[in-house]
């Protein structure tokens, strides 16, 4: 439920910048000034302002940047559960509304949630814009936050099927040994050791004559590391290793809800990287869908293996653009931290749109280089490729260069994301997170709605 409604009900919210607060304070009545002063309010955060009779009159929210998406996010979570209203330009209402809704996000599948206040804004289009964005972000967060026991490949497929049905799309999946029959050998290889059958999930939507846009998401629903077993600390959060799949489903929801004029396809290779007697081994060689052979150096570098078959299928269809999301490397997190997703692009114009959109929408992204001189690290001695570089340096780049071998006919963007907040920030609670999808959606609107 989004606590955002068209209308003018409730307590008015006065959003004031820290720099302008002394001026705003000086314009208030003596009663209000005394109340704020003696209640300990120092011009940061928010305060409820009463009338002379003790009833509430308004709310003042003081933010460093009143134009920020996150200006109301903390207040949205901390104010009493009642009605409020905010006025401003249409853009200001979108920012305020989005921060309000994302600030109130709760993952309530296993526990009861808290009641929050409702924000009324006057612009119906702003309400609808916030709904599109917030529901996409919330879907991604929910999927990542769900424990692996309830988010195995079959559950992820059900989420995609439900989404397709909601927007009139088509859903198909290829499951288990059918992956071998239909030439998806690496997806099958990585997932075959699990009791939860591996699968390739596909969602299609939109006018078949529209430009083709394909989204590919890494769906490793739990990553034990395989025979190259992770230590306990490294395994603890591996429910989030399907974060790439969660990102493309959240982005797909935005695209379909906004009726973006594209022919959308979503491909999710969904597996559990488990350990059993038939688990794939270091030193094994697999022939991929594209025909390239890959020697397995490390079974914990499995994400690029499941992605390469899906990317090869996407590329065969020569769409206008392929975008993939994956929780692919620790190297990207070491370089950029958890909160800044890195991306690679073969389309310079779209890369520029992404960077601008990230800054404008406060959904930062950072372009990394497809530095071809590192490609030799991924060459095999008894195979075309290896799945892991022999050097720890430039690990996100070498992983991206591996994936690039499977996209030769289409423009391509690859996101290496963390999908997880390790701290609470306004509007971005600790836990599963959608990183970069609002920026990508904005860039796609610029590309396809012009």
3D structure, described in words:
This protein has 450 residues and is of the alpha/beta class. It has two domains: 4-122, Leucine Aminopeptidase, subunit E, domain 1; 134-448, Aminopeptidase (3-Layer(aba) Sandwich). Helices cover 35% and strands 21% of the residues. Helix 4 links the parallel strand 5 and strand 6 (118-121).
What is the compact description of this entry?
By secondary structure, this protein is of the alpha/beta class.
Features:
2 domains; Leucine Aminopeptidase, subunit E, domain 1; nine-stranded mixed sheet; 450 residues; alpha/beta; six-stranded mixed sheet
Q: Which regions have little confidence, pLDDT < 50, spanning 5+ residues?
A: none
Give the total of beta strands: 20
Which architecture of the largest domain does the CATH hierarchy give at level 2? Answer: 3-Layer(aba) Sandwich
What is the CATH class of the largest domain?
Alpha Beta
Radius of gyration: 24 Å
Mean pLDDT: 97
Note the gap between the termini.
32 Å
Fourth-tier CATH superfamily name of the largest domain: Zn peptidases
Tell me the number of helical segments per DSSP (H or I, 4 or more residues long).
15
Overall geometry comes to elongated
Q: Into how many domains do the coordinates divide?
A: 2
Which strand-content bin applies to the residues? Answer: 15-25%
The proportion of residues forming helix, as a percent range, comes to 25-40%
The biggest beta sheet, please? 9 strands, mixed
Structural class, from secondary structure content? alpha/beta
Predict the CATH topology of the largest domain: Aminopeptidase
């Amino acid at each position: 439920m989004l606590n955002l409604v068209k209308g003018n009900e409730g307590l008015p919210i006065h959003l004031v910048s820290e720099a302008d607060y002394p001026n705003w304070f000086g314009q208030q009545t003596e009663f209000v000034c005394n109340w704020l002063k003696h209640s300990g309010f120092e011009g940061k955060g928010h305060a409820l302002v009463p009338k002379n009779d003790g009833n509430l009159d308004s709310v003042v929210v003081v933010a460093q940047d009143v134009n920020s998406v996150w200006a109301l996010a903390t207040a949205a979570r901390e104010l009493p559960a009642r009605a409020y209203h905010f006025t401003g330009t249409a853009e200001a209402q979108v920012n305020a509304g989005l921060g309000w809704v994302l600030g109130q996000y709760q993952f309530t599948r296993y526990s009861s949630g808290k009641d929050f206040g409702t924000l009324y804004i006057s612009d119906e289009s702003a309400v609808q814009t916030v709904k599109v964005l917030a529901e996409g972000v919330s879907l991604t967060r929910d999927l990542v936050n769900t424990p692996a026991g309830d988010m195995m490949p079959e559950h992820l497929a059900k989420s995609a099927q439900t989404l397709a049905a909601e927007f009139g799309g088509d859903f198909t999946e290829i499951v288990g040994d059918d992956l071998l029959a239909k030439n998806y050998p690496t997806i099958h290889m990585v997932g075959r050791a699990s009791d939860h059958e591996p699968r390739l999930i596909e969602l299609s939507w939109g006018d078949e004559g529209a430009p083709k846009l394909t989204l590919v998401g890494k769906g490793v629903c739990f990553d034990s590391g395989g025979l190259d077993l992770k230590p306990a600390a490294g395994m603890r959060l591996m429910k989030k290793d399907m974060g790439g799949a969660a990102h493309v489903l959240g982005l797909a929801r935005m695209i379909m809800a906004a009726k973006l004029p594209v022919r959308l396809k979503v491909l999710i290779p969904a597996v559990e990287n488990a350990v059993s007697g038939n688990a794939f081994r270091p030193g094994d060689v697999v022939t991929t869908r594209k025909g390239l052979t890959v020697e397995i150096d490390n079974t914990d570098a499995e994400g690029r293996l499941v992605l390469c078959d899906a990317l090869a299928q996407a590329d065969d269809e020569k769409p206008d653009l392929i975008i993939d999301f994956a929780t692919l490397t620790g190297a990207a997190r070491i370089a950029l931290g958890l909160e800044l997703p890195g991306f690679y692009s073969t389309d310079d114009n779209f890369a520029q749109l992404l960077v601008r959109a990230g800054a404008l929408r406060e959904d930062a992204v950072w372009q990394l280089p497809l530095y071809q001189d590192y490609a030799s690290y991924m060459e095999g001695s008894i195979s075309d490729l290896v799945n892991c570089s022999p050097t720890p340096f430039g690990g996100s780049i070498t992983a991206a260069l591996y994936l690039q071998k499977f996209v030769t006919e289409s423009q391509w963007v690859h996101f290496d994301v963390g999908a997880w907040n390790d701290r609470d920030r306004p509007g971005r609670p600790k836990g599963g997170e959608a990183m970069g999808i609002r920026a990508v959606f904005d860039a796609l609107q610029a590309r396809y709605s012009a």
